[in-house]
Backbone:
């Protein structure tokens, strides 16, 4: 394993540790190495600070009684030890389910784009476009003076490939002050999309991104969508 690959692996592992998604064995092994590896400890500290900053961007969302009942049943079945192992080591960071989604975005960003230097090399915006059933489907990562990357992170809630149905997936964006949307082009199922940032009229906080299901070749209306919205989300500034 090269030095660069080792560094990237440490960044991802540290993010998983802070999120609390490791198994018992993985967590114990990580904590053993954490005490011996200053670089690993530094990455954990960096993730902790980053997620804390992210959590302040969202209001706390109430958890329904149904969800709490399910949690209580899980704890009763698994026991206190298992419940505490599953919980994130830094559970105080989370402000409801919205923050968990934001944290997942950051972890995916690291896996896609590499190193901690890239995380701190901003300004940078991230958006999660979700389907109507709230399943995370596409990740948008954008830098105002660089590129826009769109990456599929889930299956589509439509049967089969749109191309085989005589349909196209079209990406759109709209800033809060824009009169109408701007097309960013067509997307292929399962393939990352990379675009120059100058395709956007502007890039700001709360920038809207959406994907619509259009006739083959794109919307016949040209400058606005004609089909069903399949995924939609707004951008959050990470710095």
Residues:
């Amino acid at each position: 394993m090269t030095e660069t690959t080792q560094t990237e692996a440490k960044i991802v592992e540290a993010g998983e540790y802070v999120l609390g998604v490791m198994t018992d064995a993985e967590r114990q092994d990580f904590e053993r190495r954490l005490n011996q590896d200053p670089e690993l400890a530094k990455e954990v500290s960096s993730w902790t600070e980053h997620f804390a900053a992210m959590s302040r961007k969202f209001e706390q969302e109430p958890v329904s009684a149904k969800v709490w009942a399910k949690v209580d049943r899980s704890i009763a079945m698994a026991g206190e030890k298992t419940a505490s192992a599953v919980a994130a080591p830094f559970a105080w960071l989370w402000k409801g389910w919205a923050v968990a989604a934001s944290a997942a975005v950051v972890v995916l960003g690291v896996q896609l784009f590499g190193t901690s230097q890239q995380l701190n090399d901003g300004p940078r915006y991230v958006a999660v476009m979700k389907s109507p059933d709230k399943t995370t489907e596409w990740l948008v990562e954008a830098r105002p003076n660089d590129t826009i990357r769109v990456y599929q992170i889930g299956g589509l809630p439509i049967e089969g490939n749109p191309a085989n149905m005589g349909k196209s997936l079209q990406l759109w964006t709209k800033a809060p002050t824009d009169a109408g949307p701007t097309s960013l082009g067509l997307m292929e199922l399962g393939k990352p999309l990379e675009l120059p940032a100058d395709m956007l009229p502007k890039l700001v906080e709360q920038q809207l991104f959406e994907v619509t299901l259009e006739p083959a070749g794109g919307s016949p209306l040209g400058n606005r969508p004609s089909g069903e919205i399949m995924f939609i989300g707004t951008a959050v500034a990470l710095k």
In short: Residues 8 and 115 are 6 Å apart (CA to CA).
